[in-house]
Protein: GAL3A protein
Organism: Acrocephalus arundinaceus
Amino acid sequence: PPKPIQPSAMLTSRGPALCTALRRAAPGGLAAFHSSARRCRGARVAVVLSGCGVYDGTEIHEASAVLVHLSRGGAEVQMYAPDVPQMHVIDHSKGQPAEAESRNVLVESARIARGKIASLAKLTTADHDAVIFPGGFGAAKNLSTFAVDGKDCKVNREVERVLKDFHKAGKPIGLCCISPVLAAKVLSGAEVTVGHEEEEGGKWPYAGTAGAIKELGAKHCVKEVTISFPAHVDTKNKVVTTPAFMCETALHHIFDGIGAMVKNVLKLTGK
């Protein structure tokens, strides 16, 4: 079978003139060429990913919604992920673990970032005005051990450092879906939401998470996923959370709720 065309080959196969023009437009390489066009500098926001795919990494729709709303808000974005192995790999067509298969969180996250990503170890408060964590089970499997250990979970060392550093610097932190458990574990007394505290006939299938958040010492605030009440703002700790896919609802409601979270994060930066 024919070999797949590599990105570098796509450049050179169109002739030297095109190759030169594209490289001038993207001095940082092909990944830079695919990134958003430069604009006047707004807030500098770090987005922390946990893989690629809802069951073993970042929820892709949530990551995309975060990035779209940040773009609309004029933010300058850099994505990060821990350079560690995933807890396991899930075959998303079956919802079951893929035996004898392993993947790297940073490498998988690069799929969402279109290659423009850095190791979480390089993320500092000096370079950013805010940090946002999309959801997906990767937050509970790769950024922490919450999926296995619940209230007794441990948080990835770099994730804990980032949360504590941004909190200490008074810079806002945004989290959605399951990722608010990270703030609940690391930031004592934080106020967060994962939606409702009862399943309500399957509408809130992960409602039990709210109880675990309380056991972690955080305050859980009941919120809707719709645009009316889609995000909770803990003004004291500058932590903004929204339920997202913790609720079984239409995709546009989740998109709008994430937009409210992003909007409040950007507002808290003062940029």
User: Anything to note?
Assistant: The domain at 44-269 is CATH 3.40.50.880 (Rossmann fold). The chain has a mean pLDDT of 89. Residues 251-269 form the longest helix (19 residues). The CA atoms of residues 90 and 102 lie 10 Å apart.
